[in-house]
Amino acid sequence: MALAKNVRLCKRASLHHRPKPARGRILHKFADLVEQHVEELAALDTVDAGKLFAMGKLVDIPGGANLLRYYAGAADKVHGETLKMARPCHGYTLKEPVGVVGHIVPWNYPTTMFFFKASPALAAGCTMVVKPAEQTPLSALFYAHLAKLAGVPDGVLNVVPGFGPTAGAAISSHMDIDKVSFTGSTEVGRLVMEAAAKSNLKPVSLELGGKSPVIVFDDADLDTAVNLVHMASYTNKGEICVAGSRIYVQEGIYDAFVKKATEMAKKSVVGDPFNPRVHQGPQIDKEQYEKILKYIDIGKREGATLVTGGKPCGENGTVEEAIQKANSTRYGLAAGIVTKNIDVANTVSRSIRAGAIWINCYLGFDPDVPFGGYKMSGFGKDMGMDALEKYLHTKAVVTPLYNTPWL
Ligand code: ADP
């Protein structure tokens, strides 16, 4: 019921009929308020998710404000095109907000995911219901409060905390929600798409899991490669959809790499995420913690084969083999390549079926860089101008010229 009421409010309230410069100004004001409350917001995400407070303060919260500013600048540049029609007609397109959007977000990046979804949708003129993950509702509620202070009209940005099978499912099956933007697991993404298909055929965009490869070639600088792989694997306690969870290292550098990577992992300090000397806080909850232990166990069992062989799995270590291995997954979210050879970097980046390729870097995120997967990692982009498109409909308008009768 609460959701239905919100949706009715949403339909009336949109920012769509505001002059667009005003929409941009409101989003900038929202960003100002986020920046003014950086400490409280970072603390909320740390308490909820066990994320490092320092990272929240330096990266997640300012990153949310940056996304708001990026789309604030885009809000007055939403326009269609004039069409070159074969018949003597005046034809043009209008870009219109898709309407009421349901955003279902996960717990690993409560702030980043909130702004991945809400900022382009606000700039497009949509109204929305955001459902934060049940583990991490606090910052989303605070953002709703700041949005109101910034001048976002009541009913435009609604936050409805709750569990997935109830609050989440209500969004994906609701007849008055026009679009769902989801980030989470592949299994739940499938449920969301099914519910959308069975209700009003609302379009969905899904950013799902990944199993991203990082390929380290022989010519890579050892320290760079180790640092990069460490970051790819352990950032945010490994609770990140683009985690580099399959590391392929070419034979020539393999032994030195494993030694150094092990030393670096051992130096990592796990503890209280508010302590600035700690590198890694607790996992989000006991369920994830136990899941990780289980995977380590499976790894040990599977690792026995590797120990007996005592060598890397691959025999040749060619570029073709690396590409084939990188692609040997149902997922296609991201991939890392570490090499100084530009030909290898270019060839491999074009051959890997994934939505983001990071060469000699990892986590190459930026507001202007569209992010989203291939294959079972989903479809539809967050960030960049692609994300704005996601919240817009194209309407084609045609009228005859010269008073010519149509028939
Ligand atoms: P993760 O694997 O990251 O825990 P989930 O896919 O389980 O991700 O959850 C991501 C988001 O999807 C959360 O906000 C969760 O509440 C929501 N969710 C879970 N189940 C459903 C469902 N059946 N319908 C809609 N949303 C759901």
TrEMBL record:
SUPFAM superfamilies: ALDH-like. PROSITE patterns: ALDEHYDE_DEHYDR_CYS, ALDEHYDE_DEHYDR_GLU. Coiled coil: none annotated. Signal peptide: none annotated. The active site is at E207. Keywords: NAD, Oxidoreductase. One of its GO terms (molecular function) is oxidoreductase activity, acting on the aldehyde or oxo group of donors, NAD or NADP as acceptor. The keyword Translocase does not apply. This is Aldehyde dehydrogenase domain-containing protein. It comes from Oryza sativa subsp. indica. It comes from the Eukaryota. Belongs to the aldehyde dehydrogenase family. Residues 16-316, 318-397 form the Aldehyde dehydrogenase domain.
